[in-house]
Amino acid sequence: MQTFDWTVRVYYEDTDSGGVVYYANYLKFMERARTEWLRALGFEQDALIRDAGVIFAVRSASVDYLRPARFNEQLTVRSTVHNSGRANVVFDQQILRADDAELLTSGRIKIASLDAGTFRPKPMPKDLLEALSRDA
User: What is the pLDDT of residues 77-94, one digit of tens each?
Assistant: First the structure.
């Protein structure tokens, strides 16, 4: 799974007074796509917390807003692992309009793997690291 695509529809609540997606909501779409990517690999975040004591947190985000998405459009959020280490993953993510594949937003998001109790860096579980090395 080098690239993972997830589809989302823009709801009225996602838009601002101008009828376009509010800028922070693109980050929400990217977050949901990363969660669905993990799920597609066979990992649920609640189980990772419970069984491995690992949580994920955004360490940094760089986002370019190129074109607006509008109410009721269907979007594709494309996620690709740029690189990964024992306790971090860097994603390149794009949001495209589903009907014409026009690139609307792109971002590079660095995710840290943390100990759920101390919030200190903690290596990801071995099986997740192996899945990342297969798919990165």
Answer: 999 999 999 999 999 999
- CB of 116 within 8 A of CB of 54? yes
- Would you name the residues annotated as active-site residues? 16
In the CATH scheme, what architecture does the domain 3-135 have? Answer: Roll (3.10)
**Structure tokens, 41:** 């690999």
Work out the pLDDT band at 5, boundaries 50, 70, 90.
very high
Tell me the pLDDT tens digit for each residue of 65-77.
999 999 999 999 9
CA–CA dist 61, 36 (Å, integer) = 19
Domain boundaries, the chain: 3-135
- Cα separation, 112 vs 59, in Å, equals 6
In the block, which residue shows the tokens 């690709």? 80
Rounded Cα distance between 34 and 95, Å, is 13
In which element (H, E) is residue 118 found? none
Amino acid at 54: V
Q: Grade residue 135 by pLDDT with cuts at 50, 70 and 90.
A: low
- What is the residue type of 101? A
Residue showing tokens 């494309």: 78
